[in-house]
Amino acid sequence: MIPDLLEIGTIHAAYRAGTLTPRGLIEALIARINAYPDPAVFISRCPDEEILGHAEALELAALDELPLFGIPFVVKDNIDVAGIPSTAACPEFAYTPTADATVVAKLRAAGGIVLGKANLDQFATGLNGTRSPYGAPRCVFNADYISGGSSSGSAVAVGAGLAVFSLGTDTAGSGRVPAMFNNLVGLKPSIGRISAAGAVPACKSLDCISVFANSAADAMTVLQAAEGLDTADAYSRAPANVVLPAKPRLGILAVKDQDFAGDAETAKLYAAALETARSLGFTLVEIDYAPFLEIAAALYGGAFVAERLAAIKGFFETRAEAVHPVVRGIVAGAEKYSAADAFADIYRIQACRRLAQAELAKCDALLLPTAPTIFTVADMLADPVALNAKLGIYTNFVNLLDLAAVAVPAGFRPDGLPFGVTFIGPAFSEHSLAAYADELHRAICAGSGKLRILPQAKLPPPVTDEITLVVAGAHLSGMVLNHELQSLGAKLVAATSTAADYKLFALATTPPKPGLVHAPGFAGTGIAVEIWSLAPANFGKFVAALPAPMGIGKVTLQDGSTHPGFLCEAHALDGAKDITAFGGWRAYLNA
Prior knowledge:
Radius of gyration: 26 Å
Strand order of the largest sheet: 1-3-2-4-6-5-10-11-9-7-8
Shape: globular
Number of helices: 20
Low-confidence stretches: none
Oligomer: single chain
Strand content: 15-25%
């Protein structure tokens, strides 16, 4: 008996208990795939005897060594699997690779078993899933609606319970929009974190290999198995770990910037998701979305589309008639742009990037709708370009700004169709974003996939080697010296208070400076402080630059935890004014 919701942890538990074997799981999934009513999910299937052979070859003793031991997955058909044609959803373009793409090879080495190659919008050009000669996969909740694209079959395979996870690609949202439409977690890693060697490019400088899974924990397990610097991919980067605050400031859309394509129900679901995030202790900060929207529009609406032509130029010049009509129109549109146009767009994007970075500085991450709404297949076919553009208004900008993203289920409309939101943050912040997504996923209780079952696996918080610092005065958020922390890459972790036995003084300097003092035996209400975190090297730089009489000591907080923090030398209290009763430096200045 296989689990109702396919998760790595539950499957491995069943393997350990002896209630399931890799062969038994594969046999059950083969039967499910054969019975599934949508014939457009797969382009190619791996032979049954081959995948059963892979399952039989696994030895249970390796279960604790291989993170994906006996875990079946599906690969988007623009990513190479040795011996299986790679079509990019264009039969005339097809070739049969002799080697796996780097990511597939890594996942197989970790114990994963490839089931087959999934359908996609041709050449990964689209966010809707209808641009394939192999058919249009449908939303797992209603076959009249689109599955999302371009990673259409990959998302449906997981949403329908045909695979534990799948690989997609994401240039403009192709790993996130289908996640929303099929009630999944969609991880879009930082550019280059997973090698794209062996994948047919769409826009090579922006392409990312993405992951669809039923839980954030599973998505991160796959990421950890797949990541790594690869000399075969010029855009590959060594993994890093940018840790964001456990309770972040989240940039959200102001009402004036909200566009749900007339869908009042998804608007309500976004508002509800924001309230749930607030209830979890996340701080919500409205941002100006205009620069992000302008960047998003540039990906298809200007010279950047020429990179799609560059990806298939040789084929397109000789076999343009073999390309899907809508895709052909998009790619051919690149021919009207000159190199000068490309540079003009680069300059325009850079100007918008500065504006967007100013908005990003107001928060730790963004929390946006994954897509404004979902369309029927009929509506999409009737207006394929305009409706596709609408789907990308909250996704297209992400890779152009070198950000990471995690899409997560966020509820259902009254008609049973899903909605989702996406956490977006700095490059290499995937673990923090996934932790936020996991927390919100559980709080909203939208479950995963067609069955809407809440995943069992919980994602532990990210581990950081950063050093915390307690500040009580001019380095607080918005205060005159806070820029000194921000210039060193410091991140706000929390606003809190000291333990009861601390006093605050206004020192007899010009202008007055705050002085935090430990006063054993004093029973106050605590002093308002903030916790910031810095990389060890930057913490050293900050401390080395501190002027007397300030020093760094151990500060105990109201929760009993102890952190490095500002303390004042005793001799500096001569002539100082005791301002403890104000409760903090900010309150004193505002009095």
